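Exercise 7b. Backbone tokens:
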């Protein structure tokens, strides 16, 4: 459970912060009694120099020292400060609670330590306020960044981000910098899909956003290592690698409604699908190679008791059915019995095209006078590979095209697991009419 201490008017606006606050700067804290006051007042001073209304939310993350008491005192002293108390540990959990409860246009988060120079805050949030970008991240690995930290942390950070680029094909440079911002409507779509409640939260949020075609803006930051940081590097690294493996499996299985998120946020289908195309091609090719090998083995097994025509027909039919089922599940992420028969019938149309090509190849081979089974296998396998391109295009653009109703159906279980609601924002409410959001444009 979490409790929200609401402040008075933020940034000099009216008391209704839900409709007047542009920025909500969330500071997740765990046992930060020594530096909380200085950190919050430093952020307050900087925010007063910015052109937008704001509030600060201290997300007390199950602290065991005096952090909660100090946070509450700050909320009474400063009308722009609110407090969210989270009973369980986990930075991701604290951010989910604070962001999902916020009605501000742009949701920011920064660490309680003074590592990041606040001069980067304005360029971080400006593209989000204007609607140019969906997320923004501070990067310690950008060329223009100035970073002072130990060699161990530098090595771990660069190695981790390299792993993300190689395994999850991430294009952002720095996943774990504690300096990020997101537009509220993007948070509403993404948070139900982010499973991690700890340090991997940042990475998972960014990867899902990138794969959905959302626009991520990077800002170089000046960053100084905090020598008193309580982060356990080895344990965090291991947990992050487990998160990479779990998220990779979800992307391979296609269980995340990435295209639908992009479409609901106004991104084009090309943008929304761009992140998945490479992954889909890779999985499709693996399935295609396995199917081709299975076809060749099955053809040779049947050839001893059948004519080449019937052996080709039978082997092609069996592998076509299995190929459609495998691509349905793994390449395009379609599960359950719904439309399974329709998918297989459409797959049989592709099978007919493949049968026409392979039978024609076989006829030409026999017309040339060759009756060798080995040559038959080579020619038929080559022809089968030639049909692969046609099969992928047909499956992507025709066989497995999802109907709009599937988007809500797929997202609701993930939302329930995260304790969030996809239907919480009624038309006309602040959350449903954020400037620049699809709901606002419809109105």
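Sequence design result:
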């Amino acid at each position: 459970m979490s409790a929200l201490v609401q402040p008075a008017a933020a940034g000099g606006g009216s008391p209704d912060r839900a409709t007047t606050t542009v920025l909500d700067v969330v500071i997740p804290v765990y046992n930060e009694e020594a530096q909380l006051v200085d950190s919050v007042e430093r952020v307050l001073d900087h925010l007063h120099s910015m052109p937008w209304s704001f509030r600060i939310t201290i997300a007390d993350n199950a602290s065991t020292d005096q952090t909660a008491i100090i946070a509450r005192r700050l909320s009474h002293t400063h009308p722009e400060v609110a407090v969210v108390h989270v009973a369980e540990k986990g930075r991701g959990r604290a951010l989910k609670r604070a962001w999902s409860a916020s009605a501000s246009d742009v949701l920011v988060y920064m660490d309680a330590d003074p590592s990041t120079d606040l001069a980067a805050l304005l360029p971080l949030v400006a593209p989000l306020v204007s609607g140019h970008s969906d997320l923004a991240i501070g990067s310690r690995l950008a060329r223009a960044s100035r970073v002072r930290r130990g060699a161990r942390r530098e090595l771990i950070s660069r190695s981790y981000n390299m792993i993300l680029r190689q395994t999850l094909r991430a294009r952002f440079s720095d996943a774990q910098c504690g300096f990020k911002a997101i537009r509220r409507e993007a948070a509403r779509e993404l948070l139900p899909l982010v499973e991690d409640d700890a340090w991997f939260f940042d990475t998972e949020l960014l990867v899902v956003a990138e794969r959905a075609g959302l626009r991520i803006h990077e800002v170089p930051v000046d960053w100084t290592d905090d020598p008193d940081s309580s982060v356990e590097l080895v344990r965090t690294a291991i947990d992050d690698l487990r998160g990479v493996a779990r998220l990779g499996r979800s992307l391979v299985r296609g269980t995340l409604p990435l295209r639908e998120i992009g479409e609901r946020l106004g991104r084009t289908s090309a943008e929304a699908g761009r992140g998945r195309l490479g992954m889909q091609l890779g999985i499709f090719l693996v399935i295609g190679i396995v199917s081709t090998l299975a076809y060749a083995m099955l053809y040779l097994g049947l050839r001893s008791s059948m004519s080449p025509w019937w052996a080709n027909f039978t082997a092609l039919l069996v592998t076509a059915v299995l190929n459609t089922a495998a691509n349905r599940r793994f390449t395009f992420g379609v599960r359950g019995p719904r439309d399974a028969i329709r998918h297989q019938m459409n797959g049989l149309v592709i099978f007919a095209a493949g049968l026409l090509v392979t039978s024609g190849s076989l006829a030409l081979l026999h017309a040339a006078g060759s009756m060798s089974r080995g040559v038959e296998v080579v020619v038929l396998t080559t022809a089968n590979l030639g049909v692969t391109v046609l099969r992928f295009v047909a499956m992507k653009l025709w066989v497995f095209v999802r109907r709009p109703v599937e988007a809500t159906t797929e997202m609701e279980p993930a939302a329930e697991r995260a304790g969030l609601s996809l239907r919480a924002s009624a038309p006309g409410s602040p959350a449903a009419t954020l400037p620049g959001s699809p709901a606002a444009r419809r109105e």
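Instructor comment: Residues 269-303 form the longest helix (35 residues). Confidence is low (pLDDT under 50) at residues 1-19, 269-275, 404-443.
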